[in-house]
Design goal:
Layout: E1 3-6, H1 9-18, E2 24-27, E3 31-32, E4 44-45, E5 56-65, E6 68-69, E7 80-83, E8 90-102, E9 108-119, E10 122-127, E11 132-139, E12 142-146, E13 149-150, E14 163-165, E15 168-177, E16 190-191, E17 194-202
């Protein structure tokens, strides 16, 4: 079990690449990804892949700024900037994601099918579809999603979709588009949340509420 002290985006990439079960990553300053993203052309993955469990990322009330994907140079499809695969019990606390720009329908900040909890965070940006994908639990956080088209907040399957608990959520001119294959699973992902903003709906099923 190791502890990584991170002061730059590059150091964070190295910490993620070398992380093993039970490791702790301490974020000691705000990290601007404007420079680093130019050299990151594909997903940043955990070195242990699906075998990692119990990784902790402590933001210490700092933020990641300007995470960008789906535009140059990250133009591939299915990009999750941080891909935790089926790793379990990942905890991210006190780390915000600000001024994000996910420019395609297949890009997200984090993919975690196994289980990841994000708490005490502020998440803000423009998302073509959803900020996160998979079995992610977001709680006690403030979320602003601007101009999203798709499922707006959550993406995944019936058992591996993001869930939001005690969150303040603002939808800024978003559009919810029903998908007959996956649309019904998004009705059960909100608990004790306050939601405001503008959301238009296309092809709504009868049980949308």
């Amino acid at each position: 079990m190791a502890t990584y002290n991170v002061n730059s985006a590059h150091e964070f990439c190295n910490a993620i690449a070398g992380a093993q079960s039970g490791d702790i990553i301490e974020i000691n300053s705000d990290l601007d990804w404007n420079d680093e993203v130019e050299s990151v052309t594909e997903t940043i993955r955990l070195s242990g892949g699906d075998t990692i469990t119990g990784l902790e990322i402590n933001g210490n009330n700092h933020a990641f700024y300007n995470l960008t994907a789906g535009m140059l140079p990250m133009t591939g499809s299915g990009i999750h900037i941080f891909n935790f695969g089926k790793s379990t019990a990942i905890k991210i606390n006190g780390l915000s994601f600000l001024n994000c720009n996910m420019g395609s329908k297949t890009t997200n900040i984090i993919n975690c099918l196994g289980g990841c909890t994000i708490s005490n965070s502020v998440i803000q940006g423009k998302f073509k579809t959803v900020p996160f994908y998979g079995g992610i639990n977001i709680r006690d956080s403030m979320i602003t999603v601007s101009h999203a088209t798709g499922q707006s907040l959550s993406g995944g399957s019936g058992t591996t979709s993001p869930r939001f608990k005690y969150c303040w959520i603002r939808l800024d001119d978003c559009r919810w588009e029903y998908n007959s294959n996956v649309g019904s699973v998004y009705a059960y992902n909100l608990e004790g949340c306050y939601i405001e903003g503008k959301l238009s709906i296309a092809s709504a099923p009868a049980n949308l509420a």
